[in-house]
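Moderator note: this is an archived Q&A kept for reference. The question asked for a predicted structure of one protein chain; the sequence and the answer are reproduced below.
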Amino acid sequence: MIDPKSWKPLLGIRLQAGHPVIIWTKGDAAALEIWIDRGEGQFVFLAINIEPYTFDNSVLPPAGTSQIWRYKAIYILHDAQVGQWSDIISATVGA
């Protein structure tokens, strides 16, 4: 097993019905902790998930507007954050 201190999630993103889906690989981790910045300049907690596809069902921007949502994540093992934060990924949501 690779040392958990060296783990760094590799994230992908796609849109499904207008909502971002965060794609990641679980590996030996128990879960992934995901944080989001909805264009406000600061990250806030979004979810902890054990499934490698995390659907963000947050309320989308009003019709006719769009926002860039940014995500970062870190692995969870034994109920604690381990390793390094992922690189930040982003998606444009709304119209």
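Archived answer notes: The chain has one domain: 4-94.
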